[in-house]
Design a protein that fits this description.
Layout (H helix, E strand, L loop, with lengths): L1 H7 L12 H11 L6 E5 L2 E5 L3 H18 L19 E3 L2 E7 L6 E7 L1 H16 L7 H22 L5 H20 L5 E4 L7 H4 L5 E7 L2 E4 L23 H11 L14 H8 L9 H13 L17 E4 L6 H4 L5 E4 L1 H8 L10 H14 L2 H15 L1
Antiparallel strand pairs: 1-2, 3-4, 4-5, 6-7, 7-8, 9-10
Helix pairs in contact: 4-5, 4-6, 12-13
Length: about 400
């Protein structure tokens, strides 16, 4: 179908070659009866964009004939609509599109907004999940639920931030979720805390002073993020070379995005087993929820690269290493005490007797540096003093 539609206009073969596509399209419009049209398709959902209603009706009739004769498919009459987007929104991929009067050469600019019906259903679902958080949860389990719900809220924002009116849509529902969260946190002595004073989602919350429902965990506050913490972001054109299905495609993607603003979290890089174990206290005192939460932030900061060898941490689950494991519990799992490593590098750092000659010189220096910090400071001082006496 893609090829057939393209051959009708965009890739139509001509007797004479054209230097530029725009020149070719101008000639088509002036000297042929070809029907202009551009296809935008995602899976089985597609739109064909053209310039007049007559051309749209022509596309619909010819496409219906093609699908029936060549592919033995029937075009749904209920879902196949002809719409003048200067007068009415169209819905596509969870967005609504329209052209409105504005300052442009043709007098119109595009307006996009999240599909309002779909957005309301998503918000209703999240509000219900907040309401159903049990009153008997431990503090770690509660923060685990806050983190899970925040991931859903940020997912809605990130999917819709390409819409020019994303802030307008989110403002309509943002207060409702915040009030629902505060009602649930009353049983846990929750407070309204400025977002930039909470310790979760730092790359987002540090930009806002708006108060959000938060709960205290040890000496930090963890809060429910807000739907209103969103800004419109211009969408890049798709680079076909960037595909997750090949090594070259993955490398092309990371080469482009490594210097971009990092996402709020990278929890998906780690298995869920450790997070569940920490929530129920199964993995020891140090591997608490704060460690599970902050290792994802550390991975963001490290830009998905091993801090020892510098390789990408994309082929297997990363390992989070505590630089100084002898710090007090309220400091040992902070982001600045965590680094992301390959399993091989993690093993080399934590096994002082292991031979590290297979690593390059730069990596060996880093391994030695991390090994030195594993020893308590008073022990290092005693060792240094002993060495000094021996030298003397």
């Amino acid at each position: 179908m893609d090829e057939w539609i393209a051959k009708q206009w965009e890739s139509k073969k001509t007797k004479r070659p054209y230097g530029a596509q725009n020149t070719k399209y101008t000639a088509f419009r002036k000297r042929t009866s070809l029907t202009p049209g551009f296809l935008v398709r995602y899976a089985d959902d597609f739109v064909i964009i053209t310039d007049t209603r007559a051309h749209a009706e022509d596309w619909k009739a010819r496409l219906q004939t093609f699908l029936h004769s060549k592919m033995k498919l029937t075009l749904s009459q209920e879902k196949t609509l002809i719409t003048d987007i200067r007068k009415k929104y169209i819905k596509f991929l969870g967005y609504e599109f329209k052209m409105v009067r504005g300052k442009s050469r043709r007098g119109y600019i595009s307006r996009t907004i999240p599909d309002r019906g779909r957005l309301k259903r998503k918000v209703d679902q999240i509000a219900e999940e907040i309401k159903n958080i049990p009153e008997c949860y431990s503090r770690e389990q509660l923060i685990g639920e806050i983190n899970r719900i925040n991931s859903k809220v940020r997912g809605i924002i990130q999917y819709n931030q390409c819409c020019t009116w994303v802030s307008v849509a989110m403002d309509k529902h943002g207060r409702r979720l915040q009030l629902a969260a505060m009602r649930r946190l009353k049983q846990y002595k929750g407070k309204w805390i400025p977002a930039n004073q909470t310790q979760n989602l730092p790359h987002i919350h540090q930009q806002y002073k708006q108060k959000i429902p938060s709960v205290k965990y040890r000496d930090i506050y963890v809060g429910f993020t807000a739907l209103t913490f969103c800004r419109w972001e211009q969408t890049r054109y798709k680079n076909q070379a960037e595909t997750p299905y090949t090594e070259a495609g993955r490398q092309a993607y990371f080469q482009r995005t490594k210097k971009k603003r990092i996402n709020a979290r990278l929890d998906e890089m780690y298995p869920d087993k450790a997070a569940r174990g920490a929530s129920y206290g199964q993995w020891g005192k140090l591997n608490n929820f704060e460690f599970i939460m902050n290792r994802a932030y550390a991975l963001n900061r490290d830009k998905l690269r091993c801090r020892v060898c510098g390789g990408w941490l994309i082929s297997a689950a990363p390992w989070a290493h505590r630089i100084n494991p002898n710090l007090p519990l309220d400091k040992v799992n902070r982001v600045n005490n965590l680094v992301s490593l390959h399993k091989k590098c993690f093993t080399a750092v934590n096994n002082p007797s292991q031979d590290i000659s297979e690593f390059d010189v730069k990596a060996q220096k880093k391994i030695i540096g991390y090994r030195e910090k594993l020893v308590p400071s008073h022990t290092r001082n005693n060792q240094s003093a002993l060495m000094e006496r021996r030298v003397r």
